[in-house]
Amino acid sequence: MTAKVHSSVLAGVSARPVEVEVDVAGGLPHFAIVGLPDGAVRESKDRVRSALINSGLQFPAARITVNLAPASLRKEGASFDLAIAVALLAADTKMAAESLRGLVVAGELALDGRLKGIQGALPVALAARRAGRTRLIVPRENGPEAGLGGVASVLGASTLAEVVAYLRGEGDLPPVRVDAQALLAQEASAHDVDLSEVRGQAAAKRALEVAAAGGHNFLLVGPPGSGKTMLVRRLPTILPALTLEEALECTAVHSVAGLLDGRPLVATRPLRAPHHTATEAALLGGGRPIRPGEVALAHRGVLFLDELPEFPIRTLEALRQPIEDDRLVVSRVGQTCVFPTRVMLACAMNPCPCGHAGDPTHSCSCPPLAAERYRRRLSGPLLDRIDLHVEVPALPRDELLASAPGELSAAVRARVSAARARQRARLRRPGVPSNASMRPREIEEHCRLDAAARRVLEVGIDKLGLSARAHVRVLKVARTIADLAERDVLLAADVAEALQYRTLDRRSA
Fold first, then answer.
1. What pLDDT, on the 0 to 100 scale, is given for residue 292?
2. Disulfide check for 211: which of 52, 103, 218, 224 has CB 3.0–4.6 Å away?
3. In terms of domains, do 138 and 243 share one?
């Protein structure tokens, strides 16, 4: 006899439906899995056999063929174990086929019949909902995550025996109940740092606020110990809280990568800070199966590249397109995956190899022109995609020893959130737009300059030699500065401040 159970396979940060068909026929005992399985899927037959026997269930001594359809789609991972076991029992008449209607099953089996957690439970649930399935069975530890996917009934099980008893009508599996909004509100403020902890650096804090308000990429330039990393680490505390839709997007990426660490929902904006020795594949994604890299893991959050000139040039240049397009297409032989990459790029660097060029308290030990060669490791096209270049000087003694705390992150976040609200109302398109994502037509409509502001911009372009892309970035930043001041019109002061955030352009000029 034959039986069919629905499951899913991960493809990037989404899941695609897979039909697990099992045929049990007479003949010499044999167990074959077809349908383009990888090594982990082929090994399922050994896990399924042991799990059935150790759960007190009979393993049929027959010719067993498992087909994973569509056959042209590569199947990867151990999440088909439970679906194969259930379909095998149904094909061997140990279970009524009616009990499988509208059901999606995903889970890895231990040899003793326990169910182990899987990666990508949320994408599996979302795929089940899109396919019109009404029930989903997953390992119990994946229940809260899968419950966010919107399937009518999500059931968590601990063992194969529990699943079989439920499908035979001999037992029950408690449905998973998840209040996503309550979960988001509970964890959204879980920050253990605050912007008030940063002493001094008023200009850098102002630039950080402008970057957060408009979603702009930025680069901090300063000597070691000036507070660059400390500032970036506190950037998520002043960004607007994630919406539920954004939180689900982040959760799907982290679930596929296996980085949820027991959390059902990623409720705070991620901050990813890869080391400068990270490979191109680690940053962009890859492997077999293809898994998201650091830029996708930072989706809806911050990607922090410290010691920017130390990154390989090829790696930095490869980041240009995903940062610009908000999506990354990773293509390998036989597979193409699309990852979301709507990130704020935060970078930091020293002014020279020793770090003390221009520092009045330390002498620079670099050879002549070393600082210029150090900065030239960053290409013009890459710097054009960074909206703000900000100097972070070493703190004077008085500011360093000051006891008065700075402004709290909550107060800055309120201004940032208000500015973002103005941008959403003005741009009126899906995807939670910000000034950094404005299109040419929107820039022309919303960044109009009066005569004084235009003159300031013209002088800045002439003196700094700004490219066309850098000129557009200046307009976007000026628009954000006006939004923070709750103004609809761009003033000359807004343009002048935006031009001040082009440190490296000024040095080149």
1. 93
2. 218
3. no
Domain that holds residue 357: 186-437
DSSP 374-401: HHTTS-HHHHHT--EEEE-PPPPHHHHT
User: Token pair for residue 406?
Assistant: 């700075």
23 and 91 Cβ atoms separated by less than 8 Å? yes
What is the per-residue pLDDT across 432-449, written as a single tens digit (0 to 9) for each? 789 999 999 999 999 989
Q: For residue 39, give the CATH number of its domain.
A: 3.30.230.10
Nearest to 6 by CA among 21, 19, 15: 19
> Which pLDDT belongs to residue 221?
94
Q: Alpha carbon of 114 to those of 80, 139, 417: distances in Å?
A: 14, 9, 46
Could you give the CA distance from residue 61 to residue 58 in angstroms, rounded to a whole number?
9
Residues 400 and 332 in one domain: yes
Residue 217's DSSP bridge partners are none
Looking at residues 183-187, what average pLDDT do you find? 77
**Amino acid, res. 109:** L
Residue 269 and residue 237: Cα distance in Å, rounded?
A: 9
Please state the domain count of the chain: 2
Task: Collect all residues with Cβ–Cβ distance below 8 Å to 46 and sequence separation of at least 6.
Answer: none
Examine residue 444 and state whether it is found in any structural domain, yes or no. no
Question: Cα-flanking dihedrals φ and ψ of residue 358, to 5°?
Answer: 80, 0
Q: Are 171 and 44 in contact (CB under 8 A)?
A: no
Whether residue 318 is found in the same domain as residue 354: yes
pLDDT tens track for 58-113:
999 999 999 999 998 999 999 999 999 999 999 988 788 788 999 999 999 999 99
Place of tokens 């890895």: 108
Q: Give the model's confidence band at 190: pLDDT under 50 very low, under 70 low, under 90 confident, else very high.
A: low
- Do 279 and 400 share a domain, yes or no? yes
Considering the domain architecture, whether residues 251 and 344 belong to the same structural domain is answered as yes
462 has pLDDT over 90? no
Q: Is residue 475 part of a domain?
A: no
Residue 36's CB: how many other CB atoms inside 10 A? Answer: 16
Residue where a domain terminates, one of 388, 422, 437: 437
pLDDT bucket at 398, cuts 50 / 70 / 90: confident
**What span, in angstroms and rounded, lies between the C-alpha atoms of 494 and 304?**
27
Please say which residue of 388, 418, 437 terminates a domain.
437
Give yes or no: residues 327 and 356 share one domain: yes
Half-sphere exposure of 331 (CA within 13 A, CB side): 1
Q: Phi, psi at residue 400, to the nearest 5°?
A: -65, -35
Q: Let me know whether 224 and 152 are in one domain.
A: no
In a domain, 460, yes or no: no
* pTM strictly above 0.85: yes
Checking 454-463 for CB contacts under 8 A at 24+ apart, the result is 455/492, 456/492, 456/495, 456/496, 456/499, 457/495, 457/499, 460/495, 460/496, 460/499, 460/502, 463/509
Whether 241 maps to a domain, the answer reads: yes
Q: Could you tell me if 21 and 149 lie in one domain?
A: yes
